[in-house]
Design brief:
Number of domains: 3
CATH topology of the largest domain: TIM Barrel
Bound molecules: iron/sulfur cluster
CATH superfamily of the largest domain: Aldolase class I
Number of strands: 9
Number of helices: 19
Shape: globular
Largest sheet: 9 strands, parallel
CATH architecture of the largest domain: Alpha-Beta Barrel
Order of helices and strands: HHHHEHEHEHEHHHEHEHEHEHEHHHHH
Helix content: 40-55%
Strand content: 5-15%
Length: about 450
């Protein structure tokens, strides 16, 4: 049995005490955040507790400034790839749950090639494999074969350069195999850190074991996977409890492995076939959700924050300003959903932002963002604490910005029309002078020229 580092009574007391936090306490916490000082648990709890509009305005401003300082205006793009929806678990919030009767699918390697071809045609370079838990239909060897198939594919415009994996909690031995298969981030959502709720919403199956699930990242780290991505499903329990749970989990990993979450995802429960959203008593409204995203940004400035197409176009726009650094685009949440191939498929959840990838990317540029297809850290071996020390030194901008601009240039040459190229070229020209390091700036100028003239590509810092 693994360690339970989520002290429920401690979190409950923090949240209870925070209800009495006065303006002076909250202002002090905000001043600390503004000065780049680490926040204590009670500081974060106090920020979560406030509903004073002045405080919330300041939380948003500080989160926006932190986002700008660390991530600039870059937004990393990715897409999910569902490979199997067979699942032995009965998670009350998911349409793939074992009690839901629908026609299930598992992709063959040929199917995977079809899906990846379409994703590549959208310009994606970074995928996240998604699968239900089913030892018979979807054993680890199948996942390894999927990863190999994806990495082996080469296209005229390059290849998928990073495969993240979001599969059920597994053994150290299996994590070792995933590490050997060269996965990017291992992603696993705790769903809820509140054990009684966890027990209630996980009706049956191996996932019902809270400790096994909670300690999955320890096993992954023990196996050498040092990029792990956490998250909760907001709406299952008190969102403030969940934020504190995320922070405790992150601190546990930092203490034990010297590296916390590489990313935090913030999915909010949304309608899906075979479940009734009305049955969940802790649904999070938009205002609270925005506050939560901003507070996570403030509390863990160096952890990337991921938002999926569960959220609407409008909400995604708002959250990008408050801390989100990575979004999916053009997503399908169905197994075989990109190629369809006349199969009957069921989504894990209904996509809210259903715009095409290029529309999303184009609008990001209109809004002043730089869509980035960068996978450089993974490719250059900058993972785990090597990544974190670069991020914390403030030098990360010197690599992220040139990489974002070079990958955007590739994207525009490969997938953009004249109007798109004109827009991205103008953005690239405007941003290049912001590369602080003179040598890297000159190199970026040269590389962008090479990409445009077709003399070379696939550059990264
Ligand atoms: Fe299965 Fe994952 Fe859905 Fe649970 S959340 S039913 S484990 S696919
Ligand atoms: Fe991410 Fe590293 Fe690329 Fe920056 S340089 S966008 S941190 S992969």
């Amino acid at each position: 049995m693994g360690e339970n580092f989520i002290n429920r009574e401690y979190i409950e007391k923090l949240l209870e005490d925070a209800k009495c936090a006065d303006t002076a306490v909250i202002s002090r916490a905000l001043d600390k955040a503004e000065n780049g000082e680490a926040l204590s648990h009670s500081d974060v709890a106090a920020l979560l507790a406030t509903d004073n509009s002045g405080h919330i305005k300041r939380i948003f401003e500080i989160a926006g400034k932190i986002k700008k300082r660390i991530y600039g205006n870059r937004i990393v793009m990715f897409a999910p790839l569902y490979v199997s929806d067979y699942c032995v678990n009965r998670c009350a919030y998911c349409s793939f749950n074992n009690g839901h009767d629908f026609e299930r699918n598992k992709l063959t390697m040929d199917d995977i090639r079809q899906e990846v071809k379409i994703l590549e045609m959208m310009g994606h370079k970074r995928l996240a494999i998604e699968a239900g838990e089913h030892e018979g239909q979807c054993p680890i060897d199948y996942i390894l074969e999927c990863i190999k198939t994806i990495y082996d594919m080469k296209f005229e415009n390059g290849e998928i350069r990073r495969v993240n994996v979001n599969i059920a909690a597994t053994t150290t031995e299996n994590y070792r195999k995933l590490k050997e298969a060269k996965i990017g981030t291992y992603i696993l959502f705790q769903e809820t850190y509140h054990e009684p709720t966890y027990d209630k919403v996980h009706l049956s199956g191996p996932k019902k074991d809270f400790d096994w699930h909670l300690n999955a990242f320890d096993r992954a780290q023990d196996a050498g996977i040092d990029d792990v991505g956490g998250g909760v499903l907001f709406g299952l329990y008190d969102p403030y409890f969940e934020v504190m749970g995320l922070l405790l989990h992150n601190e546990h990993l930092e203490k034990k492995y010297n590296t916390g979450f590489h990313t935090i995802s913030v999915p909010r429960i949304c309608p899906a076939a075979g479940m009734k959203i009305e049955g969940f008593p802790h649904l999070v409204d938009d205002d609270t959700f925005m506050k939560i995203v901003a507070i996570i940004r403030i509390a863990v400035p160096f952890t990337g924050m991921i938002l999926s197409t569960r959220e609407s176009h409008d909400m995604r726009k708002k959250l990008l300003q408050l801390g989100i650094s990575q979004i999916s685009a053009g997503s399908s949440t169905e197994t075989g959903g990109y190629a369809k191939q006349n199969k009957k498929t069921t989504p894990q959840f209904f996509v809210n932002d259903d715009r095409s990838a290029i529309d999303i990317i184009s609008e990001l540029m209109d809004d002043g963002y730089i869509p980035s297809f960068c996978t450089a850290c993974y490719r250059g071996g900058r993972t785990g604490d090597r990544f974190m020390s670069l991020a914390k030194s403030g030098q990360i901008g010197n690599v992220c910005l040139p990489n974002a601009l070079m990958t955007l240039c590739e994207y525009s040459m490969d997938y953009g029309d004249d109007a798109f190229r004109k827009k991205s070229d103008a953005l690239i020209e405007k941003e290049i002078p912001h590369i602080a390091n003179e040598t890297i700036r000159q190199k970026t100028i040269e590389n962008v020229q090479k990409i445009r003239s077709g003399e070379g590509r696939d550059f990264f810092v």
